Request: fold
Amino acid sequence: MGGHALLPPTSPLLGAVLLLFCLQELWCKLDDVIVHGFPLLHQMDFVPTEEKNAMMPDISPNSSPQPFVPLLAPSPMTPFFNNSTPKLSGRCTLNFSAVDSLISTTAVDCLASFAPYLANVVCCPQFQATLVILIGQSSKNTGMLALDSTHANDCLSDFQQILESRGASNNLQKICSIHPLNLTEGSCPVNDINNFESAVDSSRLLAACGKVDAVNECCSQICQNAILEAAKKIALRDGGLTSMDIPNNLPEHYSRIDGCRSIVLRWLSSRLDPSSAKHVLRRISNCNVNEGS
Ligand SMILES: *[C@@H]1O[C@H](CO)[C@@H](O)[C@H](O)[C@H]1NC(C)=O
Ligand SMILES: *[C@@H]1O[C@H](CO)[C@@H](O)[C@H](O)[C@H]1NC(C)=O
Ligand SMILES: *[C@@H]1O[C@H](CO)[C@@H](O)[C@H](O)[C@H]1NC(C)=O
Reply:
């Protein structure tokens, strides 16, 4: 493998990116590794040597001064840190306790010392999924699938505080490119359950996505197509003709559909229990579909 020559040991970030690409290629075989979080990363020890080399070009414990995967080995039960009390804004209306165990998993997946290196592979997908499920679960009380911008600020900050109090990195917003606006509806014209359900064939969406088969979904994209279809449908919801007039190739068109896609994911997360929702979200996010095509 040319991996060693190409990757100086000082580029763990590049390594993480390459690792991501390789993981995605091997995704169908390695589903559990990703879906269940990083303590299972050492399951990779069981893949045949050539595959392992292909996946982990720069993770040689001897050549790398920066500990990378080898340090991930401690048992999931190991107490890495002592919990502290988070300082909350008191203004966020999301129900954090509804996703408490997901938050704990996320804190471990985004542990301070590893988060920057495992960002794309483990931490950020989990962080994003938890955020989607948090809003989705809370929508069962509020009816809202998005936060307004004030609440988005407070809630993202509270979420970060809670994670940090459980040992996660204090820099996750930057590491995972999450902005408070990502908690709003963006430019999607639909932001509540009632409007959503009157625009979308929700039972069909739920049937396509209620249970995502790890192996087949990446290839068949049944759920992903259903999500995209629903996102396109609600994207056309408000201004009728004006939104129809946006040519399909304009950035505005994509950003609107992107915002609507988040709304669809939150709705789905409100219809599933948090743990099933997590499996669905992690599986589809790792299929890495090119939605533009
Ligand atoms: C964490 O808790 C353990 C036992 O509960 C204690 O021995 C240790 O000193 C604590 N560490 C810190 C940094 O508070
Ligand atoms: C928050 O979620 C918990 C656990 O699901 C639930 O028991 C509680 O009633 C919820 N709180 C609110 C205000 O809805
Ligand atoms: C958050 O929103 C920004 C700007 O819209 C976007 O570039 C970024 O990809 C979003 N982050 C995620 C994780 O979706």
